[in-house]
Design goal:
Elements lengths: L4 E6 L3 H9 L6 E8 L2 H11 L3 E4 L2 H5 L5 E4 L6 H10 L3 E5 L6 H14 L3 E4 L6 H11 L6 E9 L20 H17 L5 E8 L5 E9 L4 E7 L8 E5 L3 E4 L7 E6 L2 E7 L7 H14 L9 H21 L1
Parallel strand pairs: 1-2, 1-4, 2-3, 4-5, 5-6, 7-10
Antiparallel strand pairs: 7-11, 8-9, 9-10, 11-12, 12-13, 13-14
Keywords: Oxidoreductase
GO molecular function, one term: nucleotide binding
Organism: Gilvimarinus xylanilyticus
Length: 324
């Protein structure tokens, strides 16, 4: 019998629920336990998703010797301490994006992974979606020529405003950049693989001062990237990778189900992912496969990728802080 990778969920919130819902499509793996600060919530989550164990508090989950890997779905500001604790307990870690809230935290967490010989990956699930991987392959094959522009945005209204609501709560690293802007920033890095020479940002802020609407321009020597994110309005949430010879359109790129390749006005190729899930199982399967193969890290979301995304978000924050 092949080895089964046993997962533990450190959180019983909404994102953990989506992750668990898709897990039935993951092979050679099982969710063994879930933990929440409130034991009743953990037990209800376990019943809903058919999970064997439920823990009140996180320490029992980390101490469970049967668990191979921990999925962390807590608020952004807690990712660093929870991922660090899991690594120091000898667990592999899949940590929700953004993995940390600063580049410095990201670097320190990666040092902990090296010190403990632990597996650490940021849960950038968009990178694993087949339409995004297909678009990347089209670019690498030269089908659109040299990239001239990238356009990507991600925004949903978060009304009414409440400073205690997680997405607005400054103490939990609230604001649209880390909550939603991480998606277009990560997409730009996936296709560009370099830092921009110049960044310009137009920012709007919620009543408590956290950013709630951003328009971002990355200027490269031969390309321009325009990104947007917002709590104020529903954005298109598409991505366009535009080259000298054609362009790629990815509707709802963050949860992409299709991608189209155009030359001028003609669609010349089209990929559709007919999955029955939301798509979280792709990243879970990739981590499972890495652990079964004894790999030290991910080749899809590598340490340098997570650090680059953190670095670019810090550059964006600096740009709109200077603007203020």
């Amino acid at each position: 019998m092949s080895r089964i990778i046993r997962w533990g969920l450190l959180s019983a919130g909404n994102i953990a629920g989506q992750f668990a819902q898709d897990f039935s499509a993951v092979e050679n793996a099982v969710i063994h336990a879930v933990a929440a600060r409130n034991g009743d919530i953990a037990r209800a989550f376990a019943r809903e998703h058919g999970i064997e164990k439920a823990y009140a508090g996180y320490e029992p989950l980390l101490a469970d010797s049967e668990i191979d890997v921990i999925y962390i779905g807590t608020p952004h500001s807690l990712h660093f301490e929870h991922a660090k604790a899991a690594l120091e307990h000898g667990k592999a870690v899949l940590c929700e994006k953004p993995m940390t809230v600063t580049p410095e935290e990201c670097e320190e967490l990666q040092r902990v992974a090296l010190r403990t010989s632990g597996y650490l990956m940021e849960a950038m699930w968009t990178y694993f979606l087949p339409p995004v991987q297909t678009a990347l392959r089209w670019v690498q094959e030269g089908r659109i020529g040299r990239i001239c522009q990238i356009k990507a945005d991600f925004g949903y209204p978060q009304f009414p405003f409440d400073s205690k609501k997680r997405v607005y709560d400054a103490s939990l690293a609230g604001g649209c950049l880390l909550e939603m802007g991480v998606y277009p920033v990560a997409l730009a890095w996936l296709f560009m693989r370099q830092d921009p020479a110049e960044i310009q940002v137009v920012a709007r802020h919620a009543p408590n001062g956290v950013e709630d609407d951003l328009a971002i321009l990355f200027n490269y020597p031969e390309s321009v990237v325009t990104l947007g994110t917002s709590f104020r309005c529903k954005l298109q949430n598409w991505a366009y990778i535009i080259g000298e010879q054609g362009y790629i359109a990815i509707p709802d790129f963050w949860r992409a189900r299709e991608a189209s390749l155009y030359v001028l006005d003609d669609r010349v190729d089209h990929f559709v992912d007919k999955r029955a899930t939301e798509g979280f199982h792709y990243e879970a399967q990739a981590v499972t496969n890495d652990l079964l193969a004894g790999r030290a890290g991910s080749s899809v979301v590598a340490a340098r990728d997570s650090l680059a995304i953190q670095r670019q978000m810090a550059m964006i924050r600096e740009a709109f802080s200077d603007e203020a």
